[in-house]
Amino acid sequence: MTTATSTDEQAGGNTAGSDETPVLEATGLVKLFGRVVGLRGVDLRLFPGEVLAVIGDNGAGKSTLIKCLSGAMAPDQGTIKMDGRVVNFGSTQDAREAGIETVYQNLAVAPALDIASNLFLAREIRRPGILGSVFRMVDRPAMRKQSKAFIDDLGITTLQNIDQAVETLSGGQRQIVAVARAGAFGSKVVILDEPTAALGVRETGHVLKLVRDLRDKGMAVILISHNMPNVFETADRIHIQRLGGLAGVITPKSHSMEDAVAIMTGAKTLEPDEQTLR
Amino acid sequence: MTTATSTDEQAGGNTAGSDETPVLEATGLVKLFGRVVGLRGVDLRLFPGEVLAVIGDNGAGKSTLIKCLSGAMAPDQGTIKMDGRVVNFGSTQDAREAGIETVYQNLAVAPALDIASNLFLAREIRRPGILGSVFRMVDRPAMRKQSKAFIDDLGITTLQNIDQAVETLSGGQRQIVAVARAGAFGSKVVILDEPTAALGVRETGHVLKLVRDLRDKGMAVILISHNMPNVFETADRIHIQRLGGLAGVITPKSHSMEDAVAIMTGAKTLEPDEQTLR
Amino acid sequence: MSQTASTSPASVEDLLSRRRSPAERIQHVLHGNPALSPLIVLIAALIVFGIVSEGFLRPQALSLLVQQMAVVGTLAAGQTLIILTAGVDLSIGMAMVLSSLVMAKLAFGGMPSFLALLIGIAVAVLTGLLNGFLVTKINLPPFIVTLGTFSIFTALSLLYAQGQTIAVNPNSFLLVTGRSLSIGSVSVTWGVIFMVAVFVALGFALRNSAWGRHLYATGDDADAARLAGIRTGRVLLSAYVVAGLCVGIAAWIVAGRVGGADPNAGLNYNLLSITAVVIGGTSLFGGRGSVVGTLIGALIVQTFNSGLALAGVDPNYQVLATGILVILAVSVDQWIRKVKG
Amino acid sequence: MSQTASTSPASVEDLLSRRRSPAERIQHVLHGNPALSPLIVLIAALIVFGIVSEGFLRPQALSLLVQQMAVVGTLAAGQTLIILTAGVDLSIGMAMVLSSLVMAKLAFGGMPSFLALLIGIAVAVLTGLLNGFLVTKINLPPFIVTLGTFSIFTALSLLYAQGQTIAVNPNSFLLVTGRSLSIGSVSVTWGVIFMVAVFVALGFALRNSAWGRHLYATGDDADAARLAGIRTGRVLLSAYVVAGLCVGIAAWIVAGRVGGADPNAGLNYNLLSITAVVIGGTSLFGGRGSVVGTLIGALIVQTFNSGLALAGVDPNYQVLATGILVILAVSVDQWIRKVKG
Amino acid sequence: ANDNRPGVSLILKTQTNPYFVAMKKDAEDEAAKQGVRLSVAAGTQDGDTQNQINQIYTAIARGDKGILITSNGDSINAALRQAKAAGLYVIALDTPLIPPNTADNTFATDNRVAGQHIGQYAAAKLDGKPAVIAMLDLYNDQVVTVDTNRDHGFLQGMGIPTGNQSQNGLEPKKGHYTGGKGGSYQIVCHRPTQGAIDGGRQAMEQCLSANPNINVVYTINEPAGEGAYAALKAAGKQKQAFIVTIDGSCDGINLVKSGEFAADSTQYPGKMARLGVAAIAKIARGGPPPGKTAGKNFYDTGTALATNDPIPGVKSQTPAAAAKTCWG
Ligand SMILES: Nc1ncnc2c1ncn2[C@@H]1O[C@H](COP(=O)(O)OP(=O)(O)OP(=O)(O)O)[C@@H](O)[C@H]1O
Ligand SMILES: Nc1ncnc2c1ncn2[C@@H]1O[C@H](COP(=O)(O)OP(=O)(O)OP(=O)(O)O)[C@@H](O)[C@H]1O
Ligand SMILES: [Mg+2]
Ligand SMILES: [Mg+2]
């Protein structure tokens, strides 16, 4: 699980993988949009307690890949297994109930609702006592307080009013709301699609720390990012997408940033035995 | 105009500035949202042929600032001058007609329209001859061809179908559409609010090259970004926002990235004579 | 530069603290409660009509006014739910007619009133269920669904009632909604009390329950809500069912008003209920609005109606005036919102 | 792993090239032209009614059907523009009535027909201008604006016509829209030709002119369009004005049909025109749809209406059938779109 | 606001129908003559009872002395009873209430009789030929008593059984009519017209598509009849079929003269209104309430058949005679 282990295995090569069952495993995913190819047969394996980065050029199919994994899209072909069992997510809610929590690139927030309502959407805290159990009242003050704590933890200090509607937040503040949701409620697998794109230097640091914390709690994290330094600093393994297909899986130890960029852009191809599939 | 000159001036300090009139000058901009402070009296000067980066934490007021400059919002207080004359932009169209072209953070694209229609929105090419002049037909093939060229120039190679509706594009592809618009049509001032946030390594490089090309053509560019290496590589001067106010203006020559981050987060304050207002 | 940097914050604080004059405080309150700005329009209308026709503000006249809006108000409460989900219910008036016909005909046929009432309300809930099913499961636009069910409910009403209006025994429990309760000098019908209860219950649920949050989120951005883990289909369906319940209560109220049931009673209610919702400040695009606003909207519509009639305006000019007043009311509302910006 | 990487692309190419069967090719065409999927519904309806009642598909019956839809069709063309901007025009039928009354009354009073026609059309354009002004300048929701102007136009019509129908000299140029032109064995009225001209002109402009692009962009996302540099206010206003022009032409067509003007004519046209647009696949949320779809939508509505009449369905069940058919039509449309996904 | 004249409310069905406009005008004239304060109100469309109920309550609140109402439906009865309890004198105009004693008095045309007149005329004119009938009614999506009374009156006049009493279209579609010389009949269609010209035209066009041999056209009112004529003319069948209608407006009588309508049952809305206003004015000044027509439970303002082509055995007026009293 530690980086050391995976380096060990990398030597052993791509062939067998570890004995451990991946928490999430996709095989041969294909997704077509009319005549546009989104995914052309992609495999992905994710193990508990690791951070798997997914990188690739714009339009390489990263978002499409994780949408298929999280139930937001149905792949045209291919199978997805969770803990070794084939699953068929009809909706994101199915995936969420199976323990996959996702932050999408286009930030699924309800613009007119305030921060606390968004953070706790579909997971509201009830009032204690009869008000909650019979009248089903939600506990606004508690949600508001916890929201403030989540946001503070993620290093956003400029938020002046916790009751602001999400549509009035700055780009980065809005992104933090979405990330905080996933961080707070993820159970097995957390998928983050470019979670730091709109974030400042410090806020990015906080989010990456959150990612490592989640891993340390034993969760598996998929992190999509265009920021190579961040990826190499945080990821255990790196899944490289290219033109809708999988160009290879490497680790920060086995390859350099330059290698990664070269593979991503097609300047270099990866030999099968260079990969780190675990 | 060159970085050399501005370094010279930096020695002279903030007092007088150059003899040159700024192409865009804002003084004492204040913007309140109810009790939330967006801008608390911000000054900004932009000279022709320079790239002015605007950096700052999330929620520091960067987007609010450029919305006030580009006519998308009316400031509550403060004046904006273009070429020395006070202007009052009632709408973004007014600003655009005065020569200010802006890419907003939340990407102003029409989701259901295709790429070419979006790129040429409000600037359609007419058919030659009577079809264009009398029947006012737009020249779709020409627009499509030019669009393809713009997008290719910006390094997006994964676009499979130029007729895709913008809503079906990947995050980065969509951003490129917005940036290409500004690059193609900017006349005096081009404002880019986090144009590379969703872009890959190579595409980012292309956009930064575009920025430098625009500067070399004599335009003035305002570039908002959270990516310090990019900022320091591209900007002539750097305007630092903090908590809605101006924390200072520096140059990549006069200060290091660490300084910039420290000023941004309040760990360090800038002495008046350290600034480079020109 | 540093000059400005040190003086400006002061001026911002000035600006912020200056925002404390009484007028601005009112603006602040208005900002927090968008439903209050139609309230201002309502109060203005009451004052104007009170001046024009002396009798208008007498408690008796006002109590009549509220009785007259009980049906529209209750329907509009249900309509609010649908519109909050970015839908619209064009069938709501006919669904009410169908339900009231069932109640009245069963009671007329000798069934105990209470049972007839329950079955009638069940029919209303079923109409909501049908609309909701077509919207959520078959994924049709609500406009079309309810346009279609409008015809279906109309036809069923006509076939069921055989074109007759049905008069129920005046002592039947079914007509309790038309009976009055004296509170001090004013008398209030049970129908009005039920309508108020509907508003209180819905207002409470929308504001305070998770269901309410989910309804707003679904109407605001259904895709986002789904991705956030809300079962949007279920939420939508529930909105239609609860609206159906409101329809059932409205049917009960209308039964009390007409002493039975009338197959033509639903004609104007579709549009009237939507009008009340929109004047009350709820967005037709979903996700923004409240039932309090709707209540005020319904009162505004009824005030115009009764006020003009009481003033004895010629009916042709009444129509003209209603049109102008509706536009004026919303303009003023818009203006208040803008000023308070 | 490399295994999969090398075999899978082949399977993708397989998938892509397999997409070439005739059925799938049809799907591909449908995908490119969303208006074609209501067309399938229309054809199905024509076939079914043709089987049920023998006379239905005779050229003469079909030509009558088209004549009957000329008014709704022309209005729906204008309505399409408004709905594409995410608005809705509830006043369109009454505006037409007002305009046709002006035409007829002036011609009746002895004014040269051509002048009377021009003034009538000018009135129609003015109604559009009023709606557009209130929507764009005062910033009111189109639903409320046109609800208000609906009342205003109704009142003006009643006051102007004094409740009378007006019969114009049968030889007047104003009634040319009712006269026929024989093309082969079928005769077509000028009204139908004008309607077709309206659709061709609007279809061309929406597809090919910058104005059309701007209209779609404004309806799609008004804020984005504004930021992109479109004067959205002007575009909106122009949509209402052009819709007003369509109203004027519809008024001319209706004059030809009724031989003058009738203040009662407008009631159903508001909802009918919206129905045609929505069945034609245009989204009530703006930015998506086409006038071709509307034309087909209007034909579908008229086909149901006439088809049921011809089949001799009992009037009480006709209403029921209409409701069910509307829902079915859109369900099928939805299903076709989903299949072709 | 300080008006001490006795108040009279006139509540019309709609104001889009010239019939009620005529009623309103005569009521206004009479009110001026009698020195009463007249408030006019109307439903938004036929069948709109809810708005009429509101207007009744408004009349009570305003303290009027009496209500003249052209009812849109029985569900206004409860409100009218309250008005009577509050001391208002209630007169139904044009449309009798069910039960009729809900109103204190009724001044009305008997719509069923008006229908019977044109039915008898049509049967006689057919002279034993088979009847191919188009029925152009008012609505198919609401039930309005004028609609059924006229439709059923016409059928009864023709000698055709009507089936259900309160709904149109439930009679046997084929059979034998007994009016005139009698003969076989076929009912081709029942179509709604909304009482408007274009509605009448669409309906007639559809009926003709279903059966081009139609020779008798019943229309609910004159505008629907005009539309039907336009459709017949466009199809070149204006000679083959004749139109019978009900209204008797001055314009309509002209169309009877020109032969567009074969027969038209007249009504006298102006008379109803004038009688009604005068009655309430009298009561308000302490006079006695008005009486009823002998043998009927209402005051019959009468109806007559106007035709240019009188047929022996059917009592009728010439258009010229009818024009003298049109809508008086
Ligand atoms: N709904 C759709 N219809 C058509 N094409 C689509 C659709 N969604 C995605 N695509 C296309 O599929 C390809 C992959 O898109 P995807 O969003 O997965 O890219 P990405 O790797 O996430 O890119 P980015 O880094 O820019 O976010 C792109 O070419 C895109 O245009
Ligand atoms: N319409 C609004 N209503 C209320 N508050 C607003 C509104 N728009 C912006 N704000 C607030 O103003 C502050 C500045 O926002 P702005 O968008 O300018 O930040 P930014 O510097 O662009 O941040 P980012 O880097 O995250 O994009 C934030 O605290 C934000 O919440
Ligand atoms: Mg992506
Ligand atoms: Mg920003």
TrEMBL record, chains A, B:
Composition bias of kind Polar residues appears in 1-18
What Pfam families is this protein classified in? ABC_tran (PF00005)
Query: What is the superkingdom listed in this entry's lineage?
Result: Bacteria
Q: Which InterPro entries match?
A: AAA+_ATPase, ABC_carbohydrate_import_ATPase, ABC_transporter-like_ATP-bd, P-loop_NTPase
Cite the SUPFAM superfamilies for this sequence: P-loop containing nucleoside triphosphate hydrolases
Instruction: Give the ABC transporter domain ranges.
Output: 24-268
Q: Which CDD domains match?
A: ABC_Carb_Monos_I
The signal peptide annotation in the UniProt record is none
Map out region (Disordered) in residue numbers: 1-20
Q: Which UniProt keywords are given for this protein, alphabetically ordered?
A: ATP-binding, Nucleotide-binding
GO molecular-function terms, A-Z: ATP binding; ATP hydrolysis activity
Full protein name: Sugar ABC transporter ATP-binding protein
From TrEMBL, chains C, D:
Q: InterPro entries this protein is in?
A: ABC_transp_permease
Q: What membrane topology does the annotation report for this chain?
A: Multi-pass membrane protein
Taking the first listed entry, what is the main subcellular location of this protein, grouped into a coarse class? membrane
Extract the Pfam families matched here: BPD_transp_2
Q: What transmembrane ranges does the database entry give? A: 35-57, 69-102, 114-136, 143-161, 181-206, 235-255, 267-285, 292-311, 317-336
Location in or out of the cell: Cell membrane
Q: Which UniProt keywords apply?
A: Cell membrane, Membrane, Transmembrane, Transmembrane helix
> This chain belongs to which protein, by name?
ABC transporter permease
* Gene Ontology MF, one: transmembrane transporter activity
GO CC terms in record? plasma membrane
